[in-house]
Amino acid sequence: MKLVFHNRLNRFWHEKIGELREEFSHVDFVTEEERVKGEIETAHALVGGNIPRELVQRAQHLSMIFVPFAGVDALPLDYIKEHGITISNAHGNAPYVAERCIAMALAFYGKIIDYHNDLKDSRWHGFAAQKGVRDTWNSMQARTCAVIGTGEIGKNIAKYLKVFGCRVIGFKKRPVKKKLEFFDEITLNLEEALEKGELIFISVPLTEETQGMFHAEILATLKGKFLVNAGRGRIVDEEGLYRSLKDGVLAGAGIDVWYTYPRSGTDRRDPSKYPIHELSNVVLSPHVAGFTPQAAVLNIDQTIENIRSYLKTGKPRFVVDSDLMY
């Protein structure tokens, strides 16, 4: 058995891999960068979330890919499904993604960014500026919220929303057999969820089904609502999002996932071909919702547990559905 790590490895990774080496002495854990490319052809399992198609195709003995985070859309999914390769992923960062979603909503309703910038310029608001309640922040409490996607991230969003006394409606594509904790209602009808929710949180993964799920026509119906996207940019129509924000259809948005990203070697690039980042009703986040020191440790732990379970029983703890690809 040969397991090749095609991802960046820090000290904590090496510490955990060392534990696996002691426990499974018959397994060749390939971690040395100079060995990785040369060992792909004979690998039985790969670890990584951004593995090019050509590398996967070279791994003629490959039966398992361990992704050290939740999203699997950067893999050649058609080839993987065609060749019966199993994907296992990790959900350790879900509570932190949910926390970031709530933070963006709080920042919008609380006018945190605006008031911070104004006070830096010595400009006051509210009673201290003799302007009354029309010039102050608003509250999220007791609002009705729609959570689109009731997986690990969606469940945590719902959990946090209950702290604010919100009514939470969850949208799923398929029926549930038991009541989901923290959700007041589950619907299989997207339009119904969007109609009822004043705050809308997108936490579905990017798949063939969800790409373009929030198309321009749907966005045009979201008058006065606040949209948070922590799924993937392409779930929401790019131009439709810009127009609905610019024209005041959407009250605002909190966006952590984008349409264009910096090229290798630079940290600068507009996040969209439309000037979404220049709009005053958008809370911007550079795709870091699931990227905290705590989340990184939990994702590594879960990936190691997936590997350990696979080596012991033939099955990892978390398995991605080959049809749904999440």
Describe the 3D structure.
The chain is of the alpha/beta class. The protein folds into two domains: 2-92 and 294-313, NAD(P)-binding Rossmann-like Domain (Rossmann fold, 3-Layer(aba) Sandwich), CATH 3.40.50.720; 94-284, NAD(P)-binding Rossmann-like Domain (Rossmann fold). The protein is built from eleven helices and twelve strands. Helix 7 links the parallel strand 6 and strand 7 (167-171).
Q: What does this entry show, briefly?
A:
This protein has 326 residues and is an alpha/beta fold. It has helices at 11-23, 33-39, 53-58, 77-82, 94-109, 112-120, 152-163, 190-196, 216-219, 238-246, 293-313, and strands at residues 2-5, 28-30, 45-47, 64-66, 86-88, 144-148, 167-171, 185-187, 199-202, 226-229, 252-255, 282-284.
Entry keywords:
326 residues; alpha/beta; Rossmann fold; 2 domains; 7-stranded parallel beta sheet; 5-stranded parallel beta sheet; 34% helix; elongated
Helix/strand/pairing class, anyone?
A: alpha/beta
Count of beta strands:
12
Taken in chain order, the helices and strands follow as: EHEHEHEHEHHEHEEHEHEHEEH
How far the N terminus sits from the C terminus, by CA atoms, comes to 26 Å
- Average pLDDT for all residues: 96
CATH topology of the largest domain: Rossmann fold
Low-confidence segments: none
The first-level CATH class name of the largest domain? Alpha Beta
Biggest sheet features? 7 strands, parallel
Number of H/I helices: 11
Shape: elongated
- Per CATH, the architecture of the largest domain is 3-Layer(aba) Sandwich
Can you tell me the number of structural domains? 2
* Helical coverage, percent range: 25-40%
What is the CA-atom radius of gyration, in angstroms?
Answer: 22 Å
CATH superfamily of the largest domain: NAD(P)-binding Rossmann-like Domain
